[in-house]
# Entry
Amino acid sequence: MAILDLEEQLVFYGSYHTHKHNITIHIIFVPILMFGLFLLSSSFALASNPYLNLSTLASLLYSSLYIAMEPVAGSIITPYIILQSLLGTYLHLQYGNDAVYWVGVSQIVAWGIQFVGHGVFEKKAPALLDNIVQALFLAPFFVWLEVLFMWGYRPELRDRVSKKVKTRRAEMDAKKGTDGVKKEL
# Structure
């Protein structure tokens, strides 16, 4: 699977997110998770300037790859991603372990609610259990594109992806029963 193939990536991730309530949960909680990871990674300095850290590097990597995948949507979300990194670093520098504590709490809550969303609405394990790197990279962009799609962005892409997601999800369901147990063929 080509990492920069937007349609292919959206079909992969979308196959695990077909129920509107689960998508809404992700739209709310994925940005919280991303912010928390930026704050936590801001403690790993790459230079003497505290803002040159792993969080900064990650925000630039995410932004660059999103722009490469979809230039317009990637460019629109880039300032938000960089702001999350800067704010995370600022809060970590100002509040230290208190900030880390509250981010830890928010991470537990956000991950928990998303797992519940998958169990209750999708009746399927999340994408990260099949490919954690791909899921962690794609989740923020997926939810951003879901929001843009709701606003009418690139309807032809949304339609193509939706059709492929339905096909892929049917194939996934055929391989496993709704209870998650692999069917014998």
